[in-house]
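re: that chain from earlier
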Amino acid sequence: MTVTASSGSTRVAPQRYDTLPLSSVRQAEQEDRFPDGGELNNLVTFFQSGQRRVEAARRISDNADFIVAKAANRIFSGGTPLSYLDAPLSPAARSGSQTAVLAADQAAFRRSVETYAGASGSTGRGNLISRLLEGAGGDADVRVVLPTGFSPISVGLYGTARMRKSIRDLAWFLRYVGYALVAGDPSILAVNTRGLRDVLEKACSLTATNVALQEMRAASAGLFKAEPGTRQLVIQYFNVLIAELAIPTPSARQRLGSSVTQGLQLPATYALGAQGKALRFVMKPAMTGAQKAEVIRAAYRQVFERDIVKGYGQEVCSVEATQTRQGQLSMREFIRALGRSRDYQKQFYGRFSNSRAVELAFRHFLGRGLSSREEFTAYFDIVSAQGLPGLVDCLVNSMEYARVFGEETVPYLRDLGEEAQESAGWGSNRKLFRFSAPFEGAPQYVTLYASYRQPYPDQHPYGGSNDPLGLTYGAIFPSSTAKVATRPAPFGYDSRRILIGNGLNQPGQMDSRQFRKAVPRRVGPKVVRLQQIATGGNSVPRRGGQPNIRGTEASTQAVINAVYVQVLGNAGYAGERNKVEEIKLENGDISLREFVRQVARSNAFRRRYWSGLYITKAIEVMHRRLLGRPSFGRWEIDAYFDTAARQGFYGVIDAMLNSREYNDCFGEDTVPFERFVTPADRTARKVPGLNRPFNAAAYPDLTPTKRPEVAPPLAVRTVGDITPRNLPQRSEVIRGVWSAKIVGGEVNRPAGPQTSSASVRQQPAPQRTWRAPGVNAFWSTPGGQGFESPSAAQAPLAGGWSKAVAGNLAAAPALQPGAAMQRALRPAQPQGFRRRQSLGRPVRVGRTASEAQVQEAVTTTYRQLLNRIPLRVERLKDAESQFRNVQLTAAEFVAQVATGELFQQRLNRMAPLRAASAAYLALLGRAAQPQEVSRYLATRGAAGQVAAVQELLNSQEYAEAFGQDTVPYVRGLDTADGIPISTVNRTAALYGGNGGLNPAPGGAI
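^ sequence. v structure.
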């Protein structure tokens, strides 16, 4: 037995034959165009002639007995060839529309059953000569030409078995012609008959087969004398069949192996079936301009999986394409240029993981999928170290590319029939060849090979999940489809399933004496033994005085019932119990093991667990019934499978009952019991929902009680509780603005009790007081009552407080200069203070920094300015290299990133205010103040955004905060000299944490 794991392929065998609609559309599909006039005419002709071709195939099928018999009578002598058929070839008679067989054909059919030697009215020699010369006449296109050295085969010398095979083969040939008629394409004849020449020469006679096929051609053509078109079509297919049998057997196609790929062999029929299905585009110097343009388009279709010139107007590598047309550049180098182009990098490399990029590159440049995990690992290391250019160079420079495509051929998809491929990758190959492959980001091969080599935790190696063999009794049928993440791991000959002891006491190592002699504990299954007593030789006369072993009646009946339950699954229905063996067991004439053997050999057991089951299912269930455990693995099933093939059902029973394990576990007096179970058995038998104890206290008291009454409120609600009124102690919003004219110096107000205004007409007490030189503090409200300190003089101040109160409460407040920018930059709730723990430590890089410190500085710079780590193709590799070589300081590297394309694109995608805030937060580590935002926007509008960013980098604040060796970081969450508290709050509102976007893309700035 050989078992392979399913790779998820929906079709593990390629279709080797072709049909006319498929062959007509295939070329247009591969060239990414609509079918032309000739191809459409072929399709129209095919569908219009459908009824005629189906009727021709039906008529040949109805007259199959006559056609085969006429051919057999031509090449055999001395018997009735048609009598060796196992069943009639023609189907049952149809009513209504069935075409009646012609009278001449009926007469020919009656003559076909006559024997060559012994026919009435003629001698054997005359009958033979007349039959050989019968095909000399007739139409020229179906005349039978006898090859040199042909002589009829004697039926008596040929043998019955070989006669049956020969008549069966002739019927197969006729059936293939019918299939070709319906399909409209003779490829099914080629793939099924080419290579049979050697077989026919060794088994019977190639010349006799040729004569028989000519006779079948003449007989089939005779059925369509009134239909010349159909007649010529039938003759054409028979000619293809005869020509294919004359071709020598082609040799199998070999695939050379290597350190990462396996050497395989492809049968010749698969290679033949794949011929012509994949178009070959070869660039030749003698081609016309249109032909060379078509080859260039084929290269685009192979590498980019679509005709990008026709569909998108993109001509990638136009200079290289022109050089290729002019013969200055080979097709191999043009394919290399396409793979290294920026368009290919953007579409098939930049947006995929390295694993998926390797898979797509194999499809585009080698026309196949990955062969093994070792091959994937080798090329994954290449793309990780050298990037896409290194991967393309390794594939194009490989020996496989040179051997298959050479310098002039455009790579093409090598499907299942093109060359030998490992069956493990069939499913992934089919998915890789789909049109949707560029849109599937999940890698297929790396997950497939990883699942192939994963360990078996508690599952059986025959399939996924927890040992389905406990339910299917060992059936090995791989699923037709499989997901990437749930493929079962394959298993080898030495793989062993995990079994759980059914209450056994220290079973020990597998297949050890301790394992076989392990007995159940009290929690295990019940052990039933036959209690025997010695009665002596006098109890039964004429036994020569030998002691007789008899069991007690109660013990024997309990043992018999236990045997039936264990072996058959129940106590046995009426007519299924072995009464004779039961009596022998009661009398002590047979042992308990022999009684178990007789029950297992009974028709009831055979009907249940052998006749209707697949062989591996039967072996598994018999193993459970007789030895009390499931099978361990492949090697155990293989041994019993060989026994079943050689000795049959009874041999398997005897092999299990005579085994050392049965002898050590049960012996002669113990009924077999279940010793081990699988994890699936344990899970299936555990029903936790039925084992919950009933707890009455956990349920609510459903006794109806009186609903409590809530006392109504006693307070009287008036209109004033609903409508606000202008009363003292009520806070009202004053629509307007306060302004002040300040003359004098600022002094602190003496501490005192906090008081609130008693009316809306009173102003709140100011928090700061202003004192003019030589004058006490004084402030007034125009049109209102003035206030002064107890010792205040009545002389007015040059300045004072004033308010402008609008008469309309809905009027908008008056704005001071700069208030619009302040309102635009009004921060939201400062959530950044709660994310202080995500702030990283400042990163400083000196001239003696290690590689790890330099890498940390590069990563921190990208995170600070871009809020992410750029892709490999987006990184500033030259700047990073100069930074590692101490040619750039940290400040200069930050300047390279800040003036680079990524950071500028990030700011350009934002609104102006948000861009200014993002620039200050990224480069100075804090939010911008209103006047700084105005200055940034003015510089940006006058000199450009790069100049505005350079102004921040060259500022004094940047030099004092970070210097030349420190990467910028968010420092605005702490107060500093010269930074108002509003800027700190604004920084906290813009900071979204180390994992967020700073500032956030949504929300107000």
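The chain is about 45% helix and 5% strand.
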